[in-house]
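Protein modeling request. Please complete all fields; requests missing the sequence field cannot be processed.
Requester role: graduate student
Desired output: 3D structure, token encoding
Chains: 1
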Amino acid sequence: MRKVQSAPNRVEQVYAILRDSICDGTFESGMHLVQEDLAARLAVSRQPVQQAMLLLKADGLVIESGTRGLCVAPMTSDNIVHRYQIRLQLDRLAAALVLERLGSKAVGLMQRLEQEGWALIDQGKQAQRSAAAGEAVRLDMAFHSLIYDCSGNPLIAPALEPHWTFLRRVMTSILLHADRGARVWDEHQVILELLLAREAKKVDRAVTAHIVGAQDALLRAIQLRQG
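Delivered output (227 residues):
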């Protein structure tokens, strides 16, 4: 039996590069992806590109385009709504589970949530003020991942991972958008304060408002781009 290599294999590396190129807008919606060209640009054989494409299709980032082969999936209103319907329920569940665990007087959990949560909010606000959109998105994801982890349910984060990957494509512009920007971090702060105060009903309302607000902002951004 061969030993496991510590470094990512070629498929993982190609997948990560192509995924990030789609998420940061380097590869735009509808762009035709020629596997031979991508292999040449990445200095790899066609095989890892083919396998990476399968992973990207599973993420919903790449779709079949008739006889043209594969292309970058469009960002549509339906895509946003369907993914946020799932995210809303799982984020509410995660918050509710955190409250259950805090209710059992888990001092260590309370300290972790307080220390890491406030640190992420401070860093996120700084990134937003500095217009460091990519970093703000990373910290946004990290804040929600903290709540998923603190929920005690190890299946929530992996269930939401493909949705976060898909939504990264437009979140960068949203976090700097005039009517959303700083509000994201204000809402994170409210959610954290309510969790620490164990205000179950208020937490659920705050999480719902936060997720729905993010969805609506993304929909507006898509409409503006299409317009």
